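Issue 218. Parser rejects a valid record. Input:
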Amino acid sequence: MSTAIIAPAVDGPAFTKTGLNLADASLGAEFLWATDQFFAPGIRMLNPEPAAFYPGLYDDNGKWMDGWETRRRRTTGHDTAIIKLALAGTLQGVDFDTSFFTGNFAPAVSLEACYSPDAEPTNDSAWTELLSAVELGGNAHHFHELTSDQVWTHLRLHLYPDGGVARLRVYGTPHCDWSTLDSSQTINLIALENGGNQVAWSDAHYGEPRKLLRPGRGTDMGDGWETRRRREPGNDWCILTLGHKGLIEHVEVDTAHFKGNFPARCSIQAACVEQGTTKSLITQSMFWHTLMDEQPLTADAIHQFTELNDIGPITHIRFNIIPDGGVSRLRLFGKPVA
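Output the parser choked on:
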């Protein structure tokens, strides 16, 4: 196999930073159905990694492409696919990425959505248009803001008339229906699937703090929050918001795969925040009460902490790592409160 050429990073609009890519296969997004997948299967389009190109790589059907690509259409109509989002949520924007598709990209696309939490939708389901047909170019990112405030579980992507898309990234906010949860049950209140999210951080050179909130254990050292090597006094930190206000009973810190670069210690400050901006939260967080005193960490291990300070219900935390390094997962188990 020839050496891969990796698509360069692109600085996208604000929604690519505030939103979570709900079409991420590593989070559970699925490519359910398509009219055609002759040249490249649709699941590649949901890969969270940047698209890759192998100049000399071919398979039985032709040039190997990193994305979804249909055959050349010789009839009327167009190609369509149905995708299940990793998590039900509201949507902020979309990126149609045609990296390395230069003579075979789809000339235009449109996007529809539906809410079908209990069954896989079909073409006859109730679909709502999120984005009418827009033109695409080759080897480029195409960012479009979405304004719907409804909760969706599935997408239907139309290619006009055929061709390929390297990556489909759909940014939004996971939705958790707290009215269906038992308030006496202990759950991970900061999990992505329960609405947890990142707010601010001191550094995220090797990985953003949102990765701390993903399900399961980290797959490798890139699947976590990791800062650069600190060469000045102080320590690194991130501010995270819980999916719901709650009382925390125990904390889990997982340093999976971080062996020579795990933090020496960690601590957690927390508060019940009624309102504020990102900048004001950063300032306020320096004076929040201590939920968990400084605790030592070790390499590549799950740490359980049950000795917490009673500071009442909280909505936000400041997770301090001392002095720097990487953590794979952070979980805050507790009970939601009104």
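Fixed in the parser; the record now loads. The first strand starts at residue 5 and ends at 6.
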